Amino acid sequence: MRVELTRPAAKYWAILRTQLQNSFAYPLDLLARSVTILLFLWVFVNLWRVTYGAMGSQRIAGLSLADTMWYLLMAEAVMLSKRDLSKDISDQVKDGSVAYLLNKPFNFILYHFAAGLGDSLLVFATNLLLGGALVWWLVGPPPGVLGWAAAVLAALLALLLDFCISALIGLAAFIAEEVSAFRWIYQKFLLVLGGLLIPLDFFPEWLQNVSRALPFAWIVYGPARLFVDPSAARLADVLLHQMGWLVGTGLAVALFYRWVVGQLTINGG
Amino acid sequence: MRKTLSFLFSLWKTNLLSAMEYRVAFLLQVFGMMLNNAFYFLFWVIFFDRFEQVNGWALEDMFMLFGVVAVAFGAGTYLFGNALHLAGIIANGELDYYLSLPKPVLLHMLASRSVASSAGDFLYGLFSFVVAIVVTGEFSTGMLARYLLACVAAMAVVVGFLVLVQSLAFWIGNASLLTGNAVNAIITFSLYPITLFDGTAKLLLFTVIPAAFVGALPAQFVRTFDWASLGQLLLGAIVFLGLAIVVFYRGLRRYESGSAIQVRM
Prior knowledge:
Largest interface: A-B, 33 and 36 residues
Radius of gyration of chain A: 20 Å
Largest sheet of chain A: 2 strands, antiparallel
Number of helices of chain B: 14
Low-confidence stretches of chain B: none
Strand content of chain A: under 5%
Distance between the termini of chain B: 28 Å
Oligomer: heterodimer
Helix content of chain A: over 70%
Strand content of chain B: under 5%
Radius of gyration of chain B: 19 Å
Largest sheet of chain B: none
Distance between the termini of chain A: 32 Å
Strand order of the largest sheet of chain A: 1-2
Order of helices and strands of chain B: HHHHHHHHHHHHHH
Number of strands of chain B: 0
Mean pLDDT of chain A: 89
Low-confidence stretches of chain A: none
Structural class of chain B: mainly alpha
Number of strands of chain A: 2
Shape of chain A: globular
Number of domains of chain A: 1
């Protein structure tokens, strides 16, 4: 493998590709990771079938049972594919291995981003494939090509946004050391306010407004809702929100990283 | 029996003392987990606010369900924390340490670790039980006794199931992914109303993934006493604990280690 290390993008592309090849090398691991999505989708189809039945209506807040299930597939695929970078970073801070990564000829944050994305891409595709097969079998065919294209684009930006927030939590380990609690709570925000367990459309209006004002919805709800309703207006709305949050959180990561590394003292060994 | 109990209490005390060495981290994990569970529960608050009932289950039933599951899972993985790590311990040859000491191997190994965040699950479960009492206005000493019994039985099933699944590492080596999926499955299914599932699924939830013994059945027993539920609860606890012990010791006969040097601090 020939890598021109002087070109910055090439370095990170090589890291991403290596991680991707690593995922391909263990197909059974990949399949085992995707079992979880089947489990959740099976529970959801039971829950929402009963709920739609009890309501006695074909649509709730404009979504049919099939729409809701395809929405949940995309939401779960994003959630279960993303690499938990906050854990990677905080583990490296706690066990001291961060010292070996900081002096390598790459940016610590971009290294994690490339490795994380390389790990997530194949898992995302496998989750969509296996989960999609189950949902198709249970509730009928998927949305059209436009839905796939718009949702995949938004899902990539969602992974990026999640990375920025996870990096902020991980970097907090330089100060607090133990960041598990922040991580769990962030995941639960994604679960509830992000719309992973229930589409935001089913929320009372005031809570929908609160959720839309926070970044979590644009990591989960945005791509998932676009998947079942890929209108131009919705695409613009999702992308604008994602870009806005990316600029804000990306800047915060850069500043916070510079500050914590400045505070770091490494004692030989 | 008394000696074993006293040994167990010594282990739990040591675990607590060592956690207290990092008091802030411990408390952060405990309160963090309580908050984590509370945020998760928000889903059901939002759900029942919109839909009111699902096949006879309402929000107060979910408070009771969480009250049982969180206490059972929290107590089980706090008191027997290595139940979550057994597969790794087997695969890495770390059982050597326990084998060389004159104590029951399985019990010693399981109780040698307490997971700090599990204490948060346990406390959240108690909180949820109290909320269930306040919301329904139902309380009696009989109910409290049933709650304690139901939580102990559910805890036995949780620990038994974890040991059973992870003991597969004796035969298949690296069982961490299987274990991860099994833990996910039992937690996920135990936290949903059982009335969502049909006959075949229910059968699975009483056998392959015994989530019904951890959630729906004990929660129902706490609310209303009946002999059939009591019998099922006790039978589930005995069967899963018994199976776990038999399979673990069967597997232990196949155990080989690389004589790796291990340091325990």
